[in-house]
Records
---
Amino acid sequence: MLSKIFTGDPVPLSFAAYLRIVRASAWYDLIVTAPFFTPWSFAYAHGQLSLLNVRLGGAPLPAFAALHTLFVCMMGGLVLVWSLARLRMPSVALGRHDGAARLLFSLWMMWALTVSSTPLLWLFVVPECAIGVAQFLPVKQALA
């Protein structure tokens, strides 16, 4: 089994193991995204994230106007609904779509890392990339 990993021939995940990854990614999203769901919870989270960014060596996060907060909360709501869909109906298809979304989100986070003083983003980009890649692992086909 280890020889297959080191030779580049990936070992397919069982269907059940893959669905556990899809569900775990949904729970991760629920926990991480919940503070971005309302303007009030986001205001608190923004302050805490700004403090953390400073502690990590970055600059304080810029203040958000109402329009910025609107887009944050819309995205937070969308991710929460998407998370609930993956918890209720986990599938390989939803996992693959989620993996693609995570890799796109990671791309934009990496862009932001290059143009800003936001080391805080590493706390988001690393799990996003890892979960995104995990959701593209091969899955064993069920025998009919």
Note: The radius of gyration is 18 Å.
---
Amino acid sequence: MRPQPLICVRDVEASSHWYQRLLGCQSSSGGHGYEYKRLFSNGRLILQLHRWDVGHDHGPIGDQNLAHGNGVLLWFEVDDFDAAVARAREMQIEMTHPPHRNPRPNHWECWLRDPDGYSVVLASPDGSAANP
């Protein structure tokens, strides 16, 4: 099994560039021009982006007037945690929780807010944080 999360966004192209820059991933059109994108890292699908107001053959996916991703974290384990945090700072991304050590998995985390208000977590691999 492989998770393939999909989120709705206002501007697919802008969100695609935001995630590519932050995560160092690549975009591949999922079809329909600027209405849908798929993001890949090392050849594996990590995230799909879909425009709110496009229903295609399945109808609307969600209601853009409700809180975006309330209670959902888009969690990305990254091998280059320090570099990813540096990119987030360079991009002036809102950090809801600055870099900190999570003792349970013994890794580093940084919680961010994406352009549509979704919570995004960057995390180093489990066991990668030095003990205090």
Note: Residues 36 and 68 are 17 Å apart (CA to CA).
---
Amino acid sequence: MVVAPDVGDLVLRWQLDAVALVPVVVVGGLYWRGVRDLGRRGRRWSPGRSAAMAGALAMAVVATQSGVARFEDDRLWVHMVQHTLLGLVVPLLVVLAAPLTLVLQTGGPATRRGLRRALRSRPAHIVTHPVVAWCLFGGGLIAIYLTPLLALSQRNDFVHLAVHTHVVLAGTLFLAVLIGVDPLPGRPPYAARLLALLVAVPFHAVVGLALLSASRPVAPDAYPLLSDQRTAAGLFWGTGELFTVTVAAIVVRQWWLAEQRAAAREERAIAAY
């Protein structure tokens, strides 16, 4: 029987996963190059956005290279820690880092034209629609934890990688629609963003409750301990609630700042008139 990992194991027992590390290094290098090029042009990039990207990359490394990755196949609660990092924390920080805005400010003419064309395309309008982003985010949670997909991902490396890729991309897309500062097409008004966030809350609650109240493990071959599953359910439910409160606070702050800017513009227009 596998000995249960403790916090020390998660913190200290690192391992190298080159497949997961390469994208982190590439994204970090490209972002750093963009900030450097912008500085050489005499323009300042927000230190807060740089810090957000640094935090996202650091959390991605922790999720894929530390003891969290080493033991996520042994305990479902460790898997939930990894899922939280990859599906919630990393996307939140990436969105706040505004990578598309950085590309538009530092890329060459062809790069900027291509990105603008892609953002105006029909597929971009579809995937950034709040309902589509909501379905990809919430539907993915249902599929991973309430279908055989979880057990399959533990047996098949390709499926495992696909699940990780999905949670990162779906979380990033969902949050980009709600709180992103990058220029996405058809972003909804702030009230609709709050509504979309609140409607997503039941996904975490339903999955958490289903895992918590189940009389047998949902993936008995991969995670046979019911006590482990119940611990994982509590983590999943709790982090989902914390995530909702955090994102809601960001939406409200952005809404308030937008109203302040609109009021200032109106005052300037009245003064000029």
Note: The chain has one domain: 14-272.
